[in-house]
From TrEMBL:
L-glutamine binds at residues 47-49, 108, 136-137. The keyword Isomerase does not apply. In the presence of PdxS, forms a dodecamer of heterodimers. Only shows activity in the heterodimer. This is Pyridoxal 5'-phosphate synthase subunit PdxT. The keyword Hydrolase applies. It comes from Luteimicrobium subarcticum. Keywords: Glutamine amidotransferase, Hydrolase, Lyase, Pyridoxal phosphate.
């Protein structure tokens, strides 16, 4: 069976685990290298990307996680998790590094004061009904490479420059959303990720 880890250094780990389990996966909290080695997929929750970046080093997870991503580990990053997956960051701190893997440029804290945190109904590629998306000091994707599938954008009714901004993507086994589907009770984004992990098959280092 497939086991999906939730990085448990910061953020709403419990909500992600509950959503993944509702979507049919077994889950585990990941804080140690041995736990990271044993998962077939990983969720990077929201939080503060600069802090998670530092904690990944302190917990000796950063290099291993980069290796596993390069080897095809499916990862879903929400909000700060999206920033961590991005190859390029705008608006980061001067020493901020990401894990990388997603060929995108994200802008951190992109929405600015007036719409700092907000909710929107988004049409989402592959899903029949719109997704109610909760944005909390969220990033957006400013540029996406050719291999990146855009799954959702901010609707056209929003003022410029917010309208049309990319807020959900997939590239191979990597999925990222600017928003937090784990807190809405709608598990369709987690279901999508569980399917991605199942398609990739068991990838844990220790069989
Ligand atoms: N602003 C946070 C960051 O830069 C992300 C916010 C979130 O994850 N809700 O990492």
């Amino acid at each position: 069976t497939i086991t999906i880890g939730v990085l448990a250094l910061q953020g709403d780990v419990r909500e992600h685990r509950a959503a993944l389990e509702e979507a049919g996966a077994s889950t585990v909290a990941v804080r140690r290298p041995s736990e990271l080695e044993a998962v077939d997929g990983l969720v990077l929750p929201g939080g503060e990307s600069t802090t998670i970046d530092k904690l990944l080093r302190i917990f000796s997870l950063r290099d291993l996680l980069r290796e596993r991503i390069a080897a095809g580990l499916p990862v879903y990053g929400s909000c700060a998790g999206m920033i961590l997956l991005a190859d390029r960051v705008l608006g980061g701190t001067s020493d901020q590094q990401t894990l990388g893997g997603l060929d995108v440029t994200v802008r951190r804290n992109a929405f600015g004061r007036q719409v700092d945190s907000f909710e929107a109904d988004l049409s989402f590629d592959g899903l029949a009904e719109p997704v109610h998306a909760v944005f909390i000091r969220a990033p957006w994707i400013e540029e996406a490479g050719e291999g990146v599938e855009v799954l959702a954008r901010i609707p056209s009714g929003y003022p410029a420059p917010v309208a049309g901004k990319i807020v959900a993507v997939r590239q191979g086994s990597l999925v990222a959303t600017s928003f937090h589907p784990e807190i809405t009770g709608d598990h369709r984004v987690h279901e999508l990720f569980v399917r991605v992990v199942r398609e990739a098959g068991p990838t844990s280092v220790k069989e």
